[in-house]
Amino acid sequence: SIQIDAGLIEQVLINLMLNAMDAVKETASPKIIFSSEAIGSQIKISIQDNGAGIEPGLLDKIFIPFFSTKKSGSGIGLSLCKQIMFLHKGSISVYSKTSEGSLFTLTFNSL
Hints:
Elements: H1 6-24, E1 32-39, E2 42-49, H2 77-87, E3 91-97, E4 101-109
Antiparallel strand pairs: 1-2, 2-4, 3-4
Helix pairs in contact: 1-2
């Protein structure tokens, strides 16, 4: 089991879902997959899409406040997600491949 602030984690999931929806909007067969698993003492929640992906040179910048790859983005969403996960003593990670999609994983340490 994990102890979380459901409202804050809901905001993280909403942000990741909105980003995934934006990423697949021009994909011929859009797909977004939510999954979760318990591995040892960790709980992992993953959000995967088959959208445009993130360029390798930008991956280390996407969690920086006010950095955005979107024309109309504020750059607040992913940095806020990272901060919320930090407050939960967890982490957020990303794997992405251009033209194939992205996988964001939230990792919580169980009690």
